[in-house]
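The following block was generated as part of the benchmark described in Methods. Ligand: NAI.
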Amino acid sequence: MEEKGISQAVIGRLPRYFRYLGELKDEGVERISSQELSGLMGVTASQIRQDFNNFGGFGQQGYGYNVEFLYSEISRILGLDKTHHLIIIGAGNLGQALGNYMNFERRGFILKGIFDKNPALHGKKVREIAVQPMETVEQFVRENNIDIAVLTIPKSSAVEVAEVLVANGIKAIWNFAHVDLHVPEGILVENVHLSDSLMKLSYNLERYSQSKKEQG
Ligand code: NAI
C-alpha cells in the first residue's frame, strides 16, 4: 500500500491505534467500525477515518475495519514486523529499568547488550545480559548488527558517545539524555523527555483547577 507524505502528527497517533487494536485482537474482535473505535479511544470517528485515509483507508466503508488486517498493516507501517537489535548505554536506574522491561521484545526490539563506564557495574546482569565496559562497545556494534542505541547517560557525555556509536554503524538513537544530538543525515534520533509529559499534566491540572474555581 502506497504511503504518501504522512505528517508526524498522524505517525504519532499510530502507536495508540496499534495498542487498542492489539487488545481488540486479543479479545477475539474481528471487525470494528470507526464509530466503535472512536467510542473506545475518545477520538472522533472522522479523525480516525482521516488518519487511516493517509494509508489508503484500510477498510470497506459501511462494513467497518478488519481488526487483524488493520493491526498487521499498522504494525508494518511502524516497522514492527521486523526485528531490531538494540543496546543500552548507561546501566544506571533508567537503563536497568528499560532493560528489565520485557515488553519491547514482543514488538521486535531485541536487547543485545548493555554498556556502562562504571567498573562496579561490569558483569552485573540485567535479564541475563551482563553489563559490559565501554571499551568493547565499538566492536560489539560492528559485529552484532545493532540498529538502535538507547542513551541513558548524563548529557555531559551523550554527544561524544553518540558520535562513536554512529561512526560504528548505529542507525537510530533513542535519546533519554537531556541534550540535542546533532547527527549526520540518515541517522534518526527520537528524544524522550518524561518531564515534558509531566509538565503537560501539570498544565492541565492547573487549567482544570482554574475552571473549577471559576465555576464556583
Ligand atoms: P544514573 O546515574 O542512575 O545512571 C547513569 C549511568 O550512566 C551510570 O551508571 C553511569 O556510570 C553511566 N555513564 C555515565 N557516563 C557514561 C559514559 N560516558 N558511558 C557509559 N556510561 C556512562 O542515572 P539515571 O537515573 O539512570 O538517568 C540517566 C540519565 O537519563 C540522566 O542523565 C538523567 O538526567 C536522564 N533521565 C532522563 C529522563 C528522560 O525522560 N529523558 C528520565 C530520567 C532520567
